[in-house]
Amino acid sequence: MDVVELLRGHDVMVDGTAEGTGTTRDIPCDGALERARWWQAHIVEVVTGLPPDARPGAQPRPDFDPDRHSLAAREAAKARELAESGVGEASARTVRRKRQRYQALGLAGLVDGRAGRREAPGARLDARVVDAVREIVLSHRGPGPVSVERVRAQLLVQLAGQAAGDDVPVPSRSALRRLCSQFTGRLPQETPAPGPGVGDRVHLDVLSLPGLNQVTDGRHQLGLLFALDEASGVLLTAVACAGPEPVYGPALLARMCVPADQRANWISPWSSGQPGSASPSTAASGAPVIRPRTLVVDRAAAPGMAALRDACARRGIHVRSAAQLTPQDRGRVERVMTAAAGRFAAYLFSPAGRPAREAEWQVDRVQELLDVWLEKGWLREALPTGAGFPRTPLERYEDLTAHVGRVPTPLPSEEFRDLLNISWRVVGPSGLRLGGCAYNAPALHALRRPPTPGPERRPLEVRWDPYDLRQVWLRTGDEEWLVVPAAASRTALPAAGSDAGFIEERSEAPRLNRHVRNHPPELPEAARLAYHAQLQLRVACVVSAADRIDDVRLLNRYAAGPRYGVLLHGQPGTGKTSALLEARRRCTAQSHHRHGTQAPGDRAVPVVYVHLPPATSPRLLLVELARSFGLALRGSPATSQWAHRVAAAMKDARTDLVLVDEAQHLHGPGWSDSAVTETVNYLCDRIPATFVFAGIGSPGSLTSAVTGAQHRRLVPVQLTDMPAGEDWCRVLAEAEAALQLRAHEPGTLTGLAGLLHERTGGNTGRLTFLLRTAAVRAIQDGSERLTTALLSGLPIPG
């Protein structure tokens, strides 16, 4: 009688003591046997329609009824059921193979064949190798297990003496490890991989304060920005911010690399006896100094991140995305940061946090408590890590630096000063006002503006930390600085980088019309050098291209059908990148005006700028866009999946404009023109943003954007060199009006219009380089003017 027909009979009962044709007596692993019995219940249901523990008279489930479904259909239904329950290896083919082995061997056919394998140590190796390894391992008397390298070295020596010319195959390193473990019962000692050192990886992340929303009914959203050294667990700096999304900036780097108790007097040493200097903290606080070598960020598109990246690049600090780390490394860091946030929250709700509670959780009061807790609490509390390391971050820092034999040094005072925000202020009768706060000290008496009419005093340079407004630094001479403390209590910290007066902008790229700003007279030489090195020209074709981008963006905003993009093409130096930056400035300003002030936690990204590397395929273009929104770059999803993820991210971020520079690189090896065309058309049609591509000449596969209908979604805009004429003279006149040279004679540049056009060929890029270089040279040699000899002798790029 067929076994299937026998099992389907209602009057047949399977005796649990029978094990079929196979046997499980030789199975040494109870886990393998339990796994086999688990599979047996599912296979019996596939074969008979009912599980083994079904009650008498039970009916098969609809998907497993043998009268309604074939055996293959029942196997597929079981595979779907197991996949939905989380069993990843249960495909229909696996269920069929298990069923066949069960029908042939019984329960033993469902047992993993690897569980019953019993093999003598080194059964597949040469007997001389096995004997030599046994002797080496059992004769080891040192502490701990013997290393594989030592076993291999001694094995080669013994075999060289025993074999006498006979070739004996030496096992691999992994085979030696298995052989040693069979002799000793434990694996040989592995040389541990070197972990990160102090400052090798510093993580920047933002966390919320646990339990605060329940107390304040959501009225205050306070976040904590932590800079954590992965190796030691030291928090280099911590900033309390109003909202979960602070503004990043170079001042964060300054706070990381200088001791917290010495930042106030780092530019102007307190021992110099200058009046008005803030009193230093007591020495010997033990706060460690760490200078990061790699900065790991989790918010690539956060406000101010571009300025922070630029400051890191100038100091040789690599900025890395957190998505590039392994889940184990990132998980360990997140656990430490979560523990730090929880401990500080407990500190706030303890009696020590009474000032913050009485001040109704004002940010400045929370920041003051955070500074105290960072020095006296976190550094001396045990880390939430495993055993084998010193207990506290301070002990781990001391242990790691002692092992290396050197201690990191803080930033020099000049670099610390340059990383701070800069403003220009006139000292009034009540002192200085900056960021809504007043600053005053007796040392400012000689610098105050006279109340009676008289000559205006020149503005002075002020350096300030946007994350700590307890003091500012005022330059009174070339190398003379005053530390001016806050004169009144403040209600909240202002947004980093915001100021009502003149502030040096720290943006990703300068604006086109920066030269029309009202700079204070008699700027210091360093400030004038920096100003002229960034001098911008306002060119008519660049402004026209930016206007064209605005027109297309406005049409796309109200378009019900396909959207259109813009293609800027031309020779190098014609202003394509300048047009992109001008379009970005306009879009950002209009977005802020349309949506109002950005609320805390708002993740809106109105503009995305992407600079393509060489040989960029359409898939890599989508990956670059995904990286701009901080999407995790894990796995290998298809190009269509990347497109869907980028579209969803742009929709959530309310992105209105996407700028793609160096579009001539969008033609990687192996990609046809049609693949690039289809990708560009998809981006312009489906993604809710206006795409602008800028490339040199006729950018490779995008040639049809100018001549044909393949790229029907792109509007071509060509930028060319300027001819000699009225527009050329107007550009020179505006550039001359923007110069800050003391002895320069007006009308010089317009009088040399022919010479400048002959040298540059009307190329705005060459003209900009020539004027910047000449102005910097004039300041350095003291001539303070642009002359015919200077403009004729300076080399310019081809």
Tell me briefly what this model is.
It holds the Pfam family AAA_22. The chain folds into 5 domains: 3-110, no CATH class; 127-184; 202-269 and 289-404, 2-Layer Sandwich (Nucleotidyltransferase, domain 5), CATH 3.30.420; 540-719, P-loop containing nucleotide triphosphate hydrolases (Rossmann fold, 3-Layer(aba) Sandwich); 723-793. It contains 27 helices and 16 strands.
In total, the number of domains comes to 5
Distance between the termini: 93 Å
Structural category is alpha/beta
Rg estimate, integer Å: 36 Å
The CATH architecture term of the largest domain is 2-Layer Sandwich
- What's the number of helices? 27
Describe the biggest sheet? 5 strands, mixed
In helices, the fraction of residues equals: 25-40%
Number of strands: 16
Could you give the order of strands across the largest sheet? 3-2-1-4-5
CATH superfamily of the largest domain, please? Ribonuclease H-like superfamily/Ribonuclease H
Outline: extended
What value does the average pLDDT take?
76
The fraction of residues in strands falls at 5-15%
Name the poorly predicted regions.
17-25, 187-192, 270-285, 489-521, 596-602, 703-710
- Looking at CATH, which topology of the largest domain would you report? Nucleotidyltransferase, domain 5
CATH class of the largest domain: Alpha Beta
Organism: Streptomyces sp. 900105755
Protein name: AAA family ATPase
InterPro entries: AAA_22 (IPR049945), Integrase_cat-core (IPR001584), P-loop_NTPase (IPR027417), Transposase-like_Mu_C (IPR015378)
Domain Integrase catalytic: 192-401
